[in-house]
Amino acid sequence: MRNSSRYSRFAKVAAHFCGRPAVFVVAVGIIVAWIATGPIFHFSDTWQLVVNTGTTIITFLMVFLIQNTQNRDTEAIQLKLDELIRATQGAHNALLDLEELEQEGLDVFRTKYQALAAAARTELGRGVQDTGTPET
Asked: What residues make up the domain containing 129?
């Protein structure tokens, strides 16, 4: 648990740092410097290998940082949505924690809400308001 917490803190700080414009400018500077050294090294295979290896390693590590950040953001959004559902009168509490359902369970809810949306569009076409709770 403690290592996970350390990693989460590290990933959050690293992702925040790497997302800054200055870091992008530094990365562009490194690429410009690499390109500028091409003639010095006669555009050799080793010269190309340096940038290929560096960018591959950085990309590989950034994938994990981005995924960690994305997981945290998604979980926070889901919790906020769950709270909105829980606190809204007339909302269906069965929708809480919906992201944990298997695809078949999601399909059942999707079908229900697609039918509600189609009915609401039909009613709108007739000039009827589409606000409120359709079930009541």
From this structure: 101-136
Would you give the DSSP letter of residue 132?
S
Q: What is the pLDDT of residue 134?
A: 57
Query: Which of these, 16, 12, 6, 19, lies nearest to 68 by C-alpha position?
Result: 12
Q: Distance between the two ends of the chain, CA-based, in angstroms? A: 46
C-alpha angle 28-32-35 in degrees, rounded to nearest 5:
140
Counted domains in the chain: 2
Please write down the HEC assignment for all residues of 76-115: HHHHHHHHHHHHCCCCCHHHCCHHHCCHHHHHHHHHHHHH
10-residue stretch averages of pLDDT, the chain, 136 residues long: 80 91 96 95 95 95 92 92 90 88 92 91 88 63
Handedness of CA 119, 84, 90, 97 (dihedral sign): positive
